[in-house]
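Researcher: We plan to redesign the surface later, but first we want a full-length starting point. Tokens attached.
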């Protein structure tokens, strides 16, 4: 087969050499006027000439080697890798939105401003908070916006002694990083044996130095902070603010409003919970909502309604300033708006219930094979671990690689750090029972392989274009370019 391909390529090369040589000489003569001589090629590049059909087949076959939501189950815990309706992509690309000039006068973008204003109102409704900014471009960017909003608030009150942010070990890793980036000292506290915040440990570190307590709810072990109302009372008694990382809000939307817990501020990941494509580094959107007395400190401008017109209010003297050029990732906001208009309070409640049901379905079916580290009903995701005595030296990374051979993308592994050999699995609400059953069967099969033939799992993946790499060398000598 390779010989046939080689002969065909040589034949094509001979037939086009003359024409391509002329084109190359013309291009080179133009390049000489623009580039230094030592930057120019000394000979023409050897590029294959392919028909459109061959080219299409080549890239189509390459694409089939990738894992994506359109082709595979993608149980990436804590990232809500769920299906996103293609119709939202079409709507966000309507010319009135996508071709609007960034400096267009407000009169020319009233439709966009109206949509953004209505999205803010919808986010206020489902969270119970008083004001939202849509500027932040991602979850971590939302965290930074929230923490800087808190900093502006305490500065206005003259409470300069508040220099600490408390973060439990079940929070997203960006929480302590964000706090440090904002200039705060991070105080970490350990969780209790049930995977939730240890209230005694929290009380010991709360003081007049505390500015913010950051909770991820549900947390990274997939559990709801059952004592959150009491925690909020403790935080407020210390004069501090309670920040909720809402990246996992797909388990709560339509079910509970964070403001009713005593949450002062939070961010939402529109690119996760609210149906915008997520993965590959973006795009993202992390709106921040706050209670009424913090609204004046949010970034400016804010989208507001004045009579029948929509405006960008820049007259906010107490604002922390601008967090992003223009007004955020509007295409992501449009997708989230479509999602929230498609569903109402009742159906959002059903979406959250389905997300929780799917995660618990997987957790229970795998209980005798890969048990959950915290043996309790979970929320949007379950965090499994290994039965060490039955693993024959196999580790979580081996299982993740073997899953690829069975047609499933690997779950998040080795996170959260408090769970040894962690496998964080989030089925999301969009996967059906048939797919979850196939995934569970694959996990059970891998367990049997571990018991009877562990070498197969240790050498996985066996059926992929790229086999197992030397991870130690890759870590020590990363090749950052092809």
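Model: Full-length starting sequence:
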């Amino acid at each position: 087969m390779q010989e046939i391909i080689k002969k065909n390529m040589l034949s094509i090369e001979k037939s086009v050499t003359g024409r391509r040589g002329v084109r190359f000489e013309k291009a080179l003569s133009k390049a000489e006027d623009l580039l230094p001589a030592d930057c120019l090629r000394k000979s023409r590049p050897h590029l294959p000439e392919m028909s459109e059909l061959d080219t299409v087949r080549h890239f189509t076959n390459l694409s089939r080697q990738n894992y994506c939501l359109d082709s595979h189950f993608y149980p990436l815990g804590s990232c809500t890798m769920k299906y996103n309706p293609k119709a939202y992509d079409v709507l966000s690309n309507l010319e009135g939105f996508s071709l609007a000039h960034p400096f267009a006068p407000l009169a020319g973008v009233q439709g966009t401003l109206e949509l953004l204003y209505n999205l803010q109102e919808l986010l206020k409704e489902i969270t119970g908070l008083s004001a939202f900014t849509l500027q932040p471009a991602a979850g971590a960017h939302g965290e930074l916006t929230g923490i800087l909003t808190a900093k502006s608030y305490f500065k206005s009150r003259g409470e300069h002694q508040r220099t600490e942010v408390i973060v439990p070990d079940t929070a997203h890793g960006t929480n302590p990083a964000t706090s440090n980036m904002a200039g705060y000292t991070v105080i970490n506290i350990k969780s209790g044996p049930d995977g939730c915040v240890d209230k005694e440990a929290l009380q010991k570190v709360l003081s007049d130095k505390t500015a913010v307590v950051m909770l991820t709810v549900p947390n990274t072990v997939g559990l709801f902070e059952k004592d959150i109302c009491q925690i909020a009372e403790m935080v407020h008694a210390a004069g501090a603010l309670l920040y909720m990382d809402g990246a996992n809000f797909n388990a709560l939307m339509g079910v509970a409003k964070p403001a009713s817990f005593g949450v002062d501020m939070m961010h939402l990941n529109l690119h996760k919970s609210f149906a915008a494509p997520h993965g590959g580094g973006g795009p993202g959107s992390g709106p921040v909502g706050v209670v009424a007395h913090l609204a004046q400190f949010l970034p400016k401008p804010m989208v507001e309604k004045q009579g029948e017109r929509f405006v960008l209010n820049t007259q906010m003297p107490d604002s922390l300033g601008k967090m992003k050029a223009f007004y955020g990732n509007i295409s992501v906001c449009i997708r989230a708006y479509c999602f929230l208009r498609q569903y109402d309070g009742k159906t959002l409640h059903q979406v959250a219930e389905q997300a929780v049901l799917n995660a618990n379905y997987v957790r229970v079916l795998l209980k005798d094979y890969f048990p959950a580290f915290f043996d309790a009903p979970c929320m949007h995701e379950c965090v499994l671990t290994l039965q060490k005595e039955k693993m024959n030296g196999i580790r979580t990374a081996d299982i993740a690689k073997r899953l690829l051979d069975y047609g499933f993308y690997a779950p998040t592994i080795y996170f959260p750090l408090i769970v040894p050999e962690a496998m964080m699995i989030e089925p999301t609400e969009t996967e059906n029972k048939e797919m979850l059953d196939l995934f569970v069967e694959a996990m059970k099969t891998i367990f049997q392989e571990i018991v009877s033939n562990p070498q197969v799992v240790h050498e996985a993946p066996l059926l992929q274009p790229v086999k197992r790499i030397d991870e130690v060398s890759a870590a020590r000598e990363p090749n950052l370019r092809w």
